[in-house]
Amino acid sequence: MTSGQFHSRPKNKIRIGNISFDIILTVLLLLFVVIILYPFLHVIAVSLSSSRMITRNAVGLIPQELNVKGYEIVFSKPAIYTSYLWTLWYSLLFTVLNVSMTACMGYALSVPEFKLKGFVSAVMLITMFFSGGTIPSYLNIRNLGLMNTTWALVLPGCVSAWNVFMYRSFFKGISHEIREAALIDGAGELRILISIVLPLSKALIASFSLFAIVGMWNSYFSALLYIKDATRHPIQMILRSIVFTANSMGSTFGGDANIMLTNGTVNPLNVQYACLVATIAPLLLIYPFIQKYFEQGMQVGAVKG
Question: What percent of the chain is modeled with pLDDT above 90?
Fold first, then answer.
């Protein structure tokens, strides 16, 4: 038996094993996709179905007897447009502050010459395991005079220890020779961060910007605690009020909506699910534009810290 024949069997076994693993992984991923997509498609189908089909529980993944009255009721409420604008403002401001402040801290901790990086890292690590809780946070916001202001929603979560450590790990992966060359040319640390480090970190910035936008867009508890003025409520507070007032939804919207809900033309689920779709639609429109950066940014955790 030649050496080539001797080694052919193990290679074939490895190849068959890889194919089997790929098949199993593909099946599991397809199953995961179905689990994720089914409730989402069901919500869309119910929001576009007739009240009669919803009552009969006959709606699956495809709308039955097309009905857009739920969306008409949702968008007939003027507060929905105001809440959209406030949510957009909260999300954009939070994202800008979150990315800029986290990038500055992550860069400082990645600089070898920074003497206090060990102490700062230890202090930030403690915050990952212990927090003050809801009551101390509320008292802090109230004593600072931030109640019913944008800063009550934006400032508390601007810096996350976990995000800082991820930024630090990514920045450490950038060649230090680039920074040293910039220092020799007379550039300061801020100039290096803005002109060199951040342009090389587009995947990181895009990924964590998406996390920040989604986190703020889906947040309602902070607004429930700190924003007493209903005209400044984010979209999630509108959704919460609609879901919690299912039995009195007619009085909530008034007018023609009250008539349609009373006579059965529109099912309360039409309105609730239509509001759900309207709430998540902007995020679904944003994601395709930053998908390629998000996929690259998923490898951030693999960078040596």
Answer: 9
